Amino acid sequence: MSDYTHDSHVSTEHAVAHPGYGIFIKVWVALVILTGLLVLSSHFGQSYAVWGLLTLTPIKAGLVFYYFMHLKYEGALLKGVVLITIGTLLIFFALLFSDVAFH
Amino acid sequence: MTGHVHRDDLGARLGMWLFLVTEMILFGGLFIAYSYMRYRYPAEFHHGGGELNATLGIINTIVLLTSSLTVVLSIVAIQKADKRKAIAFLATTIGLGLVFLVIKGFEWAAKFHHGLYPSAPHLGTLPQGEQVFFGLYFTMTGLHGLHVLVGISVLTVLARMVGTGSIRQDRYIHLENGGLYWHLVDVIWIFLLPLFYLAA
Amino acid sequence: MSGTHASTAPPSYLVDTGTRKGLMAWLTTTDHKRIGVLYLGAMVTFFMVAMGVGFVMRLVQLTTFQKLISAQTYNALFTVHGVIMIFLFVIPGLPAVFGNFFLPILIGAKDVAFPRLNLTSWYFFMAGAILAVLSLFTGGGAPDTGWSFYAPFSLKTGTNVSLAVFAAFVLGFSSMLTGINFITTIHRLRAPGMKWFRMPLFCWAVYSTAWIQLLATPIIAITLVLVILERFFGIGIFDPAKGGDPLLYQHLFWIYSHPAVYIMILPAMGAITEIIPTFAKRTIFGYKAIAFSSIAIAAVGSLVWAHHMFTSGMSNVAQIVFSLLTMIVAVPSAIKVFNWVGTLYKGSIDFQPPLLFTLTFIFLFCIGGLTGVMQGALAVNVHLHDTYFIVGHFHYVMFGGTVMGFFAALLYWFPKMFGKMYSKKAIYASWFPMFVGFNMLYFGMLILGMLGMPRRYYVHLPQYHTLHVVATVGSWFLVLGLLGFFATLLYAIFKGEKAEDNPWGGLTLEWTIPSPPPVENFDEIPTITAGPYVFPQEAQ
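^ inputs. structure came back:
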């Protein structure tokens, strides 16, 4: 899917040194620990569980995006694409709750 | 078409990310539906969540997180031209994906056994909020499971391509894009775990 | 084939150069130009069908015809008319046809970023179309819900809603894949020197549209999946009997379907922006304002969905928020109109058929836009909701805007696409009944709605009869004009005179290559050194 006939662009990305195994294993350890914290927080009651959900889950997702999905090593374009998507979803939520929350 | 065919790996990754945008919004729509209903039925959602088997949910989370790791490690392996390791990592991922689905299958079977599925006579006797909870539970985990299935198929094809050498050290964009898809499936589960099993 | 450019001119894209010939060559092509033509052929066919359905709907309002068409059939007719026109014509319309054909050429590329994916989009489109047609004749018969498939009726009706909804899902997939392709193309395949602010403004419009396609379409996809699951398994999310909420359906439906309105209109605005400088022979007035207003329409237009729900029982806070946002989205639209008129002012106007349809677009779109602002006001909305005023309003926008923009673009680019010129006299002759009939029909609807005629009713009270007759007679003129228009173009494809490479004196890249364009568009990828619309007489 990446082939096309065009003369002007030759991608030079990924010419730099690639990260090794170690960094990703460390991230995995962090993800498992965060999952443990999340489970732990849910044992302290409803409000802790919700706060755990609202803070720890985005951090976990962020780690996967940033390291596993290589966003750390990508340029502004792909980072921007992700931010626009998340921003759009958040605005959808906010506007929807302008209805739901004031019923 | 012979002649100057150039590769644009960044273009291909951009295309993949844009596809992931649609996946994120697709599940985003379900998360919107979930929060709408949860706001309306907080107590029923709490009770519904209590019916789910949190242990299985947590085990499945670890399974998927680990499978995400092995995918990214297979890319590292291919960058180091270590074909055998790359295939081994991919095979591990596929195996973990299957484990996830088997666990999920047991979970669903238990719910069916207890009459907790949409349109079940028993579910109809429960409060309305719990009916909605289980409707959302089956829809969201079901759609996620479908994505796991698609991901397993894609990774199987990719493992074959590594084997035949069409994915190799200087040409592994397909593996990267397949990996991106798998990670997104993992991220969605990261959100599903607390929504259904923990915080509800 | 590349690398062997002989001294003779390369063959046009209409000539089969591969191993496959004829129909098979077309059905397996990955050439963006051929795919554009495939879309054009399919869409004009669907348009004619839905036009016929609309024609019959108007006949029902002449009460004598009610012996032939039952109320249930009437419900099916307006559903089918809406589904075909919206999902098969106006939403994919300009991006799929002219975006495919001209976006790569306008930025100096040889094709889109993912040519095979592009063909796949077309097959998804056709599959969706076939499923939509099948849904009319299978299962419980043609859906009778209206194109909006509102729950809970869509969950309960015995008609074949499931298949129709699945068809819309497949069409959405086609739309998203096209969006992915266009965004990647614009980011990665611009010719050397083609900076963002040197792109023709049609590209900006297509770019903004593609983003809405990506960010909004998945919401309708999941909503339609939920409707299907609801019908088959009774998951209860929209079903009030099980604790679900139809209002949630309306939110999710309009989160997509209002931005879809901007998917429809933005590319038409983009095409209009290409046409005006060419026939005013001067550069566009306010290039950046138009470019940014495209982005602004896409952004703000995605946040106004609940103005379709002012009478559905939302909270007051939401009503005020969405009313305000609705008013705001009129601003970037007005900026565009202002800039178009500003470009025409003191231009050396060369009056040709594309310009006539462009001016028609501006006139009709202004009526459509202003009636839209009226409905954005909460108090007025309560009176006008679900009346013929709404029907009149969105036909002014969708038909007067998007379809007239589509026609203007077709007239403008037709000589380039097919290498043939149509009869200008015949086009002028078909414009006249089209314009008169259009305004009789839809202005009639605006007045009917003000007087209180509800939409989607099979019968009407006697006091509305005169206006209904006016509207129906208008529809006859309109259909006459449309048939003349398409007949003229069809005749031109086969029997038209050969067109020049640059019949209108345009300056953008498509006019620098032969008509019809060669397979690879450019012998050599051009290097761009200036903006798109710098006319020589202005440079002095």
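Residues 9-197 of chain B form a domain with the Four Helix Bundle (Hemerythrin (Met), subunit A) fold (CATH 1.20.120.80). The beta strands of chain B are 6-7.
thumbs up if we can close this ticket
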